[in-house]
C-alpha cells in the first residue's frame, strides 16, 4: 500500500456490459454534505462470499477513470468511474486470494504501460485465472495440495478490460500488504506472519526489475519489540522514494530508502497508547509562518479489528517528523470519531482502518469498519508545534463529513481527486456491501451550504492523550481479523 496516486496513461478501451447488478442511492445516517450516489456489489468467486471489499486504488486509462477495488477471493474489481453516478464494473482480474491488497505503478522502462500488484497472504485458489496465467509463464505457483502459493501477483492493466498477469513474487510467509518503490523496481513486503517471529522479523525487499525473474534483494531486520509483534503490517513510501514508513504492529519504523536495494533504519519508536499499528503515512503542511512541517499519521486498528463491539475503539495518532525530529518523532496529538455506543452486531468492529491524505487540501478520508466513512479536516495540525504546544486554539483534526449504513463494514475510503471548489467523490470499499460511492459537497458553489458533521470527533493534544488513553492488553490466543481468510 502507498499514498494514493491517480495514474494516467493512454490506451484504447471499449465498454462492456455490466457484471453484478448495481443498487441506486440508499439512505443511511450521514451529514448533510455527504450523500450516497451508488452501490456496486461483487459476485462471489473462487469459493468466496459476495462483496468482501478490501483496499482500493485508482488509475486513468485510455481517457477513462477507473477504481481498482480489491477483495477476498472475488478478484480485483475494475470499476469505470468516469461518470461516478453511472459507475459500473467494467472487468475483473480473476484472482482468488486473500487479502487482495492492490497498488498501481508505472515503470520508465515500460513507457505507456500501467501495472498493479495484488497480494495473497493466507489463501490462494490455484485454479483462478491469475494462478493459471502465472503458471503458463513458468512460475511455480502451486502447493503440494494443489492450492495456490502465497505472495504478490503483478498484472498489466494498460488495457483495463483485459488485465493480464506478468509476474509472481513468491513469499513463503505471504504478502499481507506490499508496497512498490516509486521507481517501480523494488517491492517491499509486509508479510502475514503478524505475531512476532523472534529472530527472523524483517521486511523482505524484492528486485522486480525483471518481471520474469523477481529476486529477493535483501531482508531488513526489524527491532524486536514486546507486545503483539514486530513484523511489518504495512509500508508507505514518500513521494520521492527516499523514505519508507512501516506500521509494524507494536512499533513505527522510519526507513532510509535512498538506495531501495539497501534500506536502513532511521528510527523506531513505540507508543504504548497504540494497540495494533496498521498504517503510517507521511504528509506535509505549511504553518502560518510559511514553514513546511512534516507529520506522520499512525492508525490504530484496535485488536486488529478482531472485535470489540463498542464504538469507537482505535483512532489515529499524529507525530511531527520535520528535520531531525525523524530521529525521535514528537507526538502532536490524537483524534477519533465521536460516535459512542455498541456496534450493530456483538462481533462488530468500529476502529480506524485504511485512510488517505490529500496534502494540498489538508483533507483525510478514512474508513472505520462499522463506523462507515469519514472526511476529516487536518489543517489545524499546522497550529501545533514541538509535539504538544498549540500555537492555535482550534483542534488539530476535526470531522467535517460522515456516512454509515446499518450494515457498514468499510475497509478503505479514498478519493482520487478533489476539485478546485473542494467537492469530490468518495469511494468506500466495504466487506459486507462492496463498493459505495458518495459525493462530498464542500459548500463553495454559492447558495445555502450543507451542514457539516455536528460532532467533530475527539481531539487530544499529546499531553492529554498521555493521561487519557488506555494501555490495553490483548487476550492470549487472539488473532487479528485481517489475518482470517473468511
Task: Give structural attributes.
486 residues; mainly beta; Methylamine Dehydrogenase, Chain H; five-stranded mixed beta sheet; 3% helix; globular; disordered C terminus
Q: What can you tell me about this protein's structure?
A:
The protein is 3% helix and 41% strand. It is built from two helices and 36 strands. β5 (53-61) and β6 form a beta hairpin. Residues 8-22 and 474-486 have low confidence and may be disordered. The strands form nine sheets. Strands 1-5-6-7-8 form a five-stranded mixed beta sheet, with no helix packed on it. Strands 2-4-35-34-33 form a five-stranded antiparallel beta sheet, with no helix packed on it.
CATH class equals Mainly Beta
In spatial order, strands of the major sheet run: 1-5-6-7-8
Tell me what the CATH architecture is. 7 Propeller
- The N- and C-terminal alpha carbons lie at a distance of 21 Å
β content, as a range? 35-45%
Overall, the morphology is globular
**Mean pLDDT level:** 90
Q: Could you give a short account of the major beta sheet?
A: 5 strands, mixed
Radius of gyration: 21 Å
| CATH superfamily heading | YVTN repeat-like/Quinoprotein amine dehydrogenase
| Backbone structural class | mainly beta
- Note poorly predicted spans: 8-22, 474-486
- CATH topology, by name, is Methylamine Dehydrogenase, Chain H
The total count of helices amounts to: 2
Helical coverage, percent range: under 10%
Q: Please give the number of β-strands.
A: 36
As for the number of domains, it is 1
Amino acid at each position: 500500500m502507498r499514498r494514493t496516486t491517480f495514474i494516467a496513461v493512454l490506451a484504447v478501451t471499449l465498454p462492456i456490459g455490466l457484471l453484478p447488478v448495481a443498487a441506486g442511492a440508499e439512505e443511511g445516517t450521514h451529514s448533510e454534505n455527504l450523500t450516497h450516489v451508488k452501490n456496486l456489489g461483487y459476485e462471489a468467486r473462487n469459493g468466496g462470499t459476495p462483496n468482501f471489499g478490501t483496499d482500493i486504488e485508482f488509475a486513468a486509462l485510455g481517457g477513462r477513470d477507473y477504481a481498482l477495488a480489491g477483495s477476498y477471493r472475488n478478484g480485483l474489481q475494475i470499476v469505470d468511474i468516469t461518470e461516478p453516478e453511472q459507475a459500473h464494473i467494467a472487468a475483473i482480474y480473476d484472482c482468488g486470494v486473500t487479502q487482495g491488497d492492490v497498488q498501481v505503478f508505472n515503470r520508465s522502462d515500460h513507457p505507456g504501460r500501467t501495472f498493479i500488484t495484488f497480494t495473497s497472504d493466507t489463501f490462494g485458489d490455484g485454479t483462478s485465472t491469475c494462478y493459471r496465467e502465472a503458471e503458463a509463464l513458468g512460475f511455480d505457483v502451486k502447493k503440494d495440495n494443489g492450492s495456490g502459493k502465497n505472495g504478490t501477483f503483478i498484472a498489466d492493466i494498460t488495457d483495463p478490460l483485459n488485465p493480464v498477469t506478468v509476474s509472481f513474487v513468491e513469499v513463503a510467509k505471504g504478502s499481507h500488504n506490499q508496497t512498490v518503490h516509486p521507481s517501480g523496481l523494488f517491492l517491499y513486503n509486509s508479510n502475514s506472519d503478524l505475531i512476532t517471529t523472534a529472530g527472523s522479523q524483517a521486511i523482505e525487499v524484492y528486485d522486480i526489475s525483471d518481471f520474469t525473474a523477481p529476486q529477493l534483494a535483501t531482508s531488513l531486520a526489524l527491532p524486536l519489540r514486546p507486545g503483539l509483534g514486530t513484523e511489518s503490517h504495512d509500508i508507505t513510501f514518500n513521494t520521492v522514494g527516499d523514505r519508507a514508513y512501516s506500521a509494524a504492529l507494536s512499533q513505527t519504523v522510519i526507513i532510509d530508502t535512498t538506495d531501495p536495494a539497501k534500506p536502513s533504519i532511521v528510527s523506531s519508536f513505540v507508543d504504548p497508547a497504540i494497540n495494533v499499528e496498521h498504517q503510517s503515512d507521511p504528509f506535509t503542511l505549511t504553518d502560518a509562518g510559511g514553514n513546511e512541517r512534516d507529520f506522520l499519521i499512525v492508525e490504530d486498528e484496535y485488536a486488529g479489528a478482531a472485535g470489540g463491539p463498542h464504538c469507537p475503539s482505535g483512532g489515529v495518532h499524529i507525530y511531527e517528523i520535520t528535520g531531525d525530529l525523524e530521529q525521535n518523532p514528537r507526538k502532536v496529538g490524537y483524534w477519533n470519531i465521536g460516535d459512542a455506543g455498541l456496534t450493530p452486531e456483538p462481533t462488530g468492529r468500529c476502529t480506524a482502518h485504511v485512510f488517505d491524505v490529500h496534502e494540498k487540501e489538508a483533507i483525510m478520508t478514512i474508513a472505520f469498519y462499522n463506523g462507515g466513512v469519514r472526511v476529516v479536516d487536518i489543517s489545524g495540525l499546522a497550529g501545533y508545534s514541538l509535539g504538544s504546544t498549540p500555537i492555535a486554539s482550534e483542534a488539530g483534526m476535526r470531522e467535517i463529513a460522515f456516512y454509515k449504513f446499518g450494515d457498514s463494514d468499510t475497509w478503505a475510503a479514498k478519493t482520487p481527486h478533489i476539485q478546485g471548489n473542494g467537492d469530490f467523490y468518495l469511494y468506500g470499499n466495504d466487506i459486507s456491501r462492496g463498493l459505495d460511492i458518495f459525493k462530498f459537497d464542500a459548500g463553495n458553489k454559492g447558495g445555502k451550504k450543507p451542514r457539516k458533521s455536528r460532532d467533530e470527533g475527539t481531539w487530544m493534544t499529546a499531553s492529554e492523550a498521555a493521561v487519557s488513553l488506555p494501555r490495553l492488553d490483548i487476550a492470549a490466543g487472539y488473532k487479528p481479523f485481517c489475518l482470517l481468510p473468511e
